[in-house]
Each structure stands twice: as C-alpha cells, then as structure tokens.
Amino acid sequence: MKNILSLSAIVLFAVLACNSKKAPLETVKPAPSLVESVDPPDAPPKTWKEHWFEHLQLLSRVYYDTSVVVYYDGDVKPTIAWPKTYMAEAWNYTKKTYGKFGDDSRLFVIYHAGKYSGGHPDTYLSANHDYRNVTDCGASSLDAWTTGIDNDIDLSTHEIGHIVEGASKGVKESPAFDIWHDSKWMEIYQYDVYLGLNRTADAQRWYNKMMTVTDSYPKAGTQWFKNWFLPIYDNYGKAKVLNGFFTLLSQQFPKQQLTVQDKSYQQYTRKMNFGEFIHFWSGAAQADLAPLALTAFGPKDEKGADWAPMLTKAKTDFPAITY
C-alpha cells in the first residue's frame, strides 16, 4: 500500500510539473507607426477647389516640380503622365523666350475629363485663379488627354500663349486682342514653341494646318499665319521678333500702375488701333511692314476704317519706335 501511494505521488507530481510549464509565447511585432507624407513648406496644395466660371471641381495634385504643378479632376485617368514633361518643356521655353511671369516659376496645369470642353488661362496678375499662371483644359470625353499628341498638346500650348499676350514684362492685358482676336497670335506662338522644342513633326503638322486657315477679319479670306505672321517670323528674327513686339508694348504703350498682392506692376490702359499694330510690329522687325500689311489685310481695319492715317499718327505718337 505504501509503495502504491508513493508511485501515485510520483505520477501526480509529474503531471503537476508538466502542467506548470508555460507554453512559449509567440512574439508579435508592433504595427509600424503611420507616417503621413509631409510636403515641404513651399509645396503647392495637394488639392485645389475651383471657384471660377462654372468650374466647381475639387482638383487633386498629381505631380509637381520647379516648372509645373499638374492637377486632375476626379474623371481624368490618373495614368496620364505626358503633361508633367511636355508642359514643363513648353513653359520653360516660353520663359526663356519672353522672360519670367511673376515670382513663382511654376505653371499650374489643370485637366478635366467629361466636362468643361475647351480651355482658358489665367496669370499671376489676376485673383481669379489665386494669382497663379494657369492653363485649364477640359474635354467632353471621359477618355480625354490619353494620347498626348495633336489636340492634346495644341490646346494646352494655346493656353500658355494667352499668358504671354496677357502678362508679359509685368504688364497686364493684351492691347492687340481686339485685332488678332482669340487664336491668331497663338498660331505663330505655337509654331515657334514646337520648333523651339525640336518637335519637328508637330511643327510641320501645325504649319500645314495653319497655311490653310482663313478668317473674316479684318477682311474676308484673311490668312494671318501665311501672309502676316510667318513672313515676319521667317524674315525678321523668329522668336526674337515675337518677343520684341511685347517688349516694345511694355516700353511704349500707355500704362497705369497696378498693385497685386502688395507688389507693383502695370496695366495697359487701352487697346491699340490697326495703325499702331503695324507700327509696333514694324519696330519689332526693324523694317517697314506697311506693304506686308497691305498685302495681308487690305487697306482697312475690321470696322472698315482706313488704317493708313492711323499709322501716320502712330509714328507721331510713338516716335521712339523707329525702323
């Protein structure tokens, strides 16, 4: 009996000893702390709520560097990447040719899909787009902007050209807008950009297209590109003569002071007439362009007035412009 009890005690001790061992605990690594990407102080906003015209989209920043900031609305395919390269190249070439546009070196590039067909610009001299140089392009198709060729770059480049005519040399407005309307200046501006970027195929494509364009102003059948801008461009300095026109405007055409965000700029006080238009382009070309104007436009402006007396008066009013 004593032996049986001793054996039972040994078995019980062994069982208790086994049960007293703790199972090894599985080591669980703590979850990594959540690190939110923090932009540097000078970074453009990650989102931008539109507040201009009929635009009401919340835009998302998809890319930025020192040249461009690219925003898409919610319907633009996020895989579209060409604007960050092409728009930077076009903008940098524009600044190289015409000078800087405000203190921010960047162009704010906006794209929409399925809405807002067409485009518009804005500049550092306007509050409408928060004092930024902007191109805002939309299209009715939800598959818009996927190719990065032809109209994708044509419309985008066109809007940069409006920034040039409306805000060059620290002066707001475009005195020649009522004469060349919306697109005639852009025809030669875009041609020069494509050539300047060594996009020879695009330059040829654009040249072929523009050589057939006719307009009703100042007379029916006017070919602005073929008979006015291209001869000036080819014969009198290419990009240099284009920039020269805006330089002369900023130096000679009537202006008034303009304060924008506590900084001093200027604004043109009026539009130019046709005689002044020819006089300023002649000054930029350093050649009398009246014969070319007569061939390209005829003797009258869009309203039917003879521009020769206007040109004579322009020479008197702006004697510093010589050729």
TrEMBL record:
Organism, scientific name: Pedobacter alluvionis
Taxonomy, superkingdom: Bacteria
Protein name, UniProt field: Uncharacterized protein
Signal peptide interval: 1-23
Sorted UniProt keywords: Signal
